[in-house]
Write a structure and sequence with these properties.
The protein is mainly alpha-helical. It has 2 domains: 39-116, DNA polymerase, domain 1 (Orthogonal Bundle), CATH 1.10.150.130; 134-341, hpI Integrase, Chain A. It is built from 13 helices and 5 strands. The protein has helices at residues 39-49, 54-70, 81-93, 99-116, 142-149, 154-166, 170-174, 208-227, 239-242, 277-290, 299-312, 317-324, 329-333, and strands spanning 181-182, 187-190, 199-202, 262-263, 270-271. It has a 3-stranded antiparallel beta sheet. It has a two-stranded antiparallel sheet with strand order 4-5.
Length: 353
């Protein structure tokens, strides 16, 4: 029998080419050197550096997104006056927005081009502007205010009482800090109100006792939070860096804190933010319904009623302007409609039949 010849020099390296496994080459992406933030991030940075409120920032971002998507995701730097005109006209003609909404969109676009793209907007041409209707503010009578307040309790009653008794906007009231209440001088300091302006307004005497009792409860909660390592609040501007321990001081705490603890994602610190405005808005809406009032009364109606009732009581319009924080007297003049009795002063001839 003939034995097969065996080549003892054969190794595994000499396997057929079909059996070899091809090496996988992984191509790593080159690190990018462009660290420039995205357009909307640049917009947010520009607004925060100029101390715009978070609500305004959110609104401007919304309108810039609408503007970009309206033009099929084109970059604003590649667009100009005709595209802006087309977008604003579309809002008025197709979507039937109000004049204030259209103006809000225009302000957002102007801010973007001026402070982010660094380009001046020229003549926009013939924009079809939304009509600005003349509307009188919704005002409750004093009896209606009493009825609504009677259907509120606790901190919600105090907040509504301050909106009516001091003419505060809802967010101005919720952003009050303990040090803003001056019980001895009977005044409330409104910090960074509309237009980032400070002002002083009256402190209703009739709410002081309830507010002191409420603050005593809030202080005990704050002291407990500090003991447990919490009890910090966000401070305005750069005060947190300048005074590291100020955020847990009693004077900097919100007058109306939330029930639940909040955590700062950047620092990991926990504390309490102020009450969310939607909670108060819903409570006031329910109170209006329970009071049987058919007017479209909201939180801002308390402020309208405050101004109207002061003028009815004979106070000077300039005084009311200061208390409301209006820049222009024309804004305050809308409340003078109560001084003109209008049709109610005329007796109908039908009543003489």
């Amino acid at each position: 029998m003939i034995q097969p010849e065996i080549n003892h020099t054969t190794s595994f390296k000499e396997k057929p080419a079909a059996a070899t496994i091809p090496a996988i080459r992984v191509v790593m992406p080159m690190p990018t050197t462009d660290s420039k933030p995205k357009l909307l991030d640049q917009l947010s940075q520009a607004m925060r550096s100029r101390h715009y409120s978070r609500n305004t920032e959110s609104t401007y971002v919304h309108w810039i997104k609408r503007f970009i998507f309206f033009h099929h995701v084109r970059h604003p730097k590649d667009m100009a006056e005709p595209e802006i005109n087309a977008f604003l006209t579309h809002l008025a003609v197709k979507e039937n927005v109000s004049s204030s909404t259209q103006n809000q969109a225009l302000c957002a676009i102007i801010f973007l081009y001026k402070y982010v793209i660094n380009r001046k907007i020229g003549d926009l041409g013939e924009i079809i502007r939304a009509r600005k209707p003349v509307r009188l503010p919704v005002v409750m009578t004093k009896d209606e205010v009493k009825a609504v307040l009677s259907n509120l309790t606790g901190d919600k009653w105090i907040i509504a009482y301050l909106m009516y008794g001091a003419g505060l906007r809802l967010m101005e009231c919720l952003r009050l800090r303990v040090q803003d209440l001056d019980f001895s001088k009977n005044q409330i300091i409104v910090r960074s109100g509309k237009g980032d302006k400070d002002r002083i307004t009256m402190f209703p005497e009739s709410v002081k006792k309830s507010l002191i009792e409420y603050l005593n409860k809030v202080k005990k909660i704050h002291e407990s939070d500090v003991t447990n390592g919490f009890g910090r609040v966000l401070l305005p501007d750069a005060l947190a860096r300048k005074y590291p321990n100020a955020s847990k001081e009693w004077r900097w705490q919100w007058v109306f804190p939330q029930e639940t603890l909040w955590q700062n994602k950047k620092t990991g610190e926990r504390g309490r933010h102020h009450i969310d405005e939607s909670i108060i808005q819903k409570s006031v809406k329910d109170a209006v319904i329970k009071a049987g009032i058919v007017k479209r009364a909201t939180c801002h109606t308390f402020r309208h009623s405050f101004a109207t009732h002061l003028l009815e009581d004979g106070y000077d319009i300039r005084t009311v302007q200061e208390l409301l924080g209006h820049k222009d007297l024309k804004t305050t003049m809308i409340y003078t409609h109560v001084l003109n009795k209008g049709p109610s002063a005329v007796r109908s001839p039908a009543d003489n039949l």
